[in-house]
Input
Amino acid sequence: MSHHIVEVQNLTHTYPDGTAAVRGISFRIHHGESVAVVGANGAGKSTLLLHLNGYLTPQSGTVRIGDFPLTRETLRDIRRTVGMIFQDPDDQLFMPTVYEDVAFGPLNLGLPLEEVEQRVQKALMRVGVEHLRERPPYKLSGGEKRAVSIATVLAMSPDILVMDEPSSNLDPRARRTLIELLAGFQHTKIIATHDLDMVLDLCSRTIVIREGQIMADGPTTEIFQNDQLLEECHLEKPMRMQACPLCNRPSI
Output
């Protein structure tokens, strides 16, 4: 299924102030892969992700989603394929009610009202917040906002999920619910996160970025066992891989 493939070649992006956020990044992600993008603050993770849904277009290099190179002319097709979940749910929730937020995307696709209703109900049920459909988003908790922001994307039936720090500001129960939800999404997932324990749960492959460049790309467990790499990229092992302070043994 070529329409699920994400391919980035020699991508660069420099902001107007001269900050080189992405410097010659290349990778290829195949259908069904769950891939983490990790790195310290300012490594370029968010800038990279913004290119995968067309919120930024390449200054040089290319981004290809399946059969479509990312250009202004292909944005509509790419955004039907790639669902983007932002770090701050408030960036995605702007309508008076939860229902209207989740319905916004399908309505803009020109779908019949009956199908829009079905998609909204299915998406809200999938994230477990169907009881919130008439609530104003600004009155929701952080975990509820995160769930609704995911529902707004699921209602579009994307083949690829791109997520920027999806577990940020969640309490432990909401975080576990999120991980279980994402584990049930069978298509391609690309997750930028500092939550390396969540990476162990969800992603078999990890890409490590430092100062806008890829430092490593490989199996997650191998990446997290490379102490020198983690030190150079200002990362720490997931808690489950750190030695117990009492017995000096890792928990996994």
Notes: The mean pLDDT is 90.
